[in-house]
Structure formats: C-alpha cells, structure tokens
Specification:
This protein has 89 residues and is an alpha/beta fold. It has one domain: Response regulator (Rossmann fold, 3-Layer(aba) Sandwich), CATH 3.40.50. The chain contains 3 helices and 4 strands, in the order βαβαβαβ. The protein has helices spanning 12-24, 35-45, 61-70; strands at 4-8, 28-32, 49-53, 79-82. Helix 1 (12-24) links the parallel strand 1 (4-8) and strand 2 (28-32). Helix 2 packs parallel to helix 3.
Length: 89
C-alpha cells in the first residue's frame, strides 16, 4: 500500500503545517493548490489518502470529490475534507 498523502489547499501555511506533520510520521507528501491539479495528481500518483480543502480555486473540494468518485481508478480513495470557513451558529 502506498504511503503517499495528497494535501490540497490554496493556503501555503496550511500545506506546510500538514507537510511537516506527515513527513515526520513517515509519509510521502505531495501537494496541490487547486482542484484541477488535485485531480491530475490523484490520478497519476495514486495516493493512499487525500486531505482536501473545501474552498479551492478552479473547482471546490466537493467538485473534486464528485469527479474522483465517478472515476473507477479513484473511486475508493479515502478523503478527509477540511475547511477554515466559519459560520455563525
């Protein structure tokens, strides 16, 4: 099984924090800053996990998830979705 994690976020600080923690845990980390790049990397690199921001330029995290679920090669890729969006309760 691959020990590669794809981290997708358009905020460089968030990407760096995730990369630092995951590198220390022994994972190979690849990154993308937008939806189209995330789709290309998910299909070409075949990561074992995708950490995906909800709000992305190009196409949002939900669009990326839908596209991955429609592709038999990436349909079962585990996805953890994150967001920094704050809503009032």
């Amino acid at each position: 099984m691959s020990r590669t994690i794809l981290v997708v976020d358009d905020e460089p600080g968030i990407v760096q924090i995730a990369r630092d923690y995951l590198d220390r845990a022994g994972f190979r980390v690849i990154t993308a800053g937008d939806g189209p790049s995330a789709l290309r990397l998910a299909r070409s690199e075949r990561p074992s996990l995708l950490v995906l921001d909800l709000m992305l330029p190009g196409s949002d995290g939900l669009d990326v998830t839908r596209a991955l679920r429609q592709d038999p090669a990436t349909r079962k890729l585990p996805i953890i979705m994150l967001t920094a969006r704050v809503e009032e309760a």
